[in-house]
Amino acid sequence: MKRDSKLSGVLHVLLHMAESEHPATSESLAAAMHTNPVVVRRLMGGLREAGFVASARGHGGGWVLSCPLSAISLRDIHEAVGAPALLAVGHRTESPGCLVEQAVNAALGGAYRDAEALLLERLGEVTLADLSEDFHQRLVRGGHTLEDMTHDV
Which InterPro entries match (predicted)? Predict the structure, then answer.
């Protein structure tokens, strides 16, 4: 099963956007995420509906953050991009006729639900401000500056 990296990619570009003084175009965000601008516009549309970003058309336009980083949790972002599956595991068959497989599904299903609930709880405890603070600490520890960042968005 292919892993969904949508959340990781969106968090990446949102932190780049937080460091930029200029709006980010869908094209520049797509380059940072290694995807198509149409995919970015779809993702950013969900973030706009949630009130996390805003967009402006025309020359000098693009995407900007529209609320403080401290007001946005990772869970908020996860939900705004469509709440993709958090775990890349699942049942072999969803509705098995075999009683053994039904028992396996019941045991695994409970464990999967518990793991996902715990992960969602943890994502709700971490904000974009927390990620930004971690980034800045890494920047300082590494002796870097914002200008050293290899790919600005």
Answer: Tscrpt_reg_Rrf2 (IPR000944), WH-like_DNA-bd_sf (IPR036388), WH_DNA-bd_sf (IPR036390)
List C-alpha distances in Å: 12 to 85, 92, 118, 146. 19, 33, 23, 15
Radius of gyration, alpha carbons of the chain:
19
Domain containing residue 130: CATH number: 1.10.10.10
> pLDDT tens digits for 110-128?
899 999 999 999 999 999 9
**Euclidean distance between CA atoms 11 and 31, whole angstroms:** 14
pTM: 0.81
Instruction: Write out the H or E segment, with its range, that includes residue 53.
Output: strand 53-56
In a domain, 1, yes or no: no
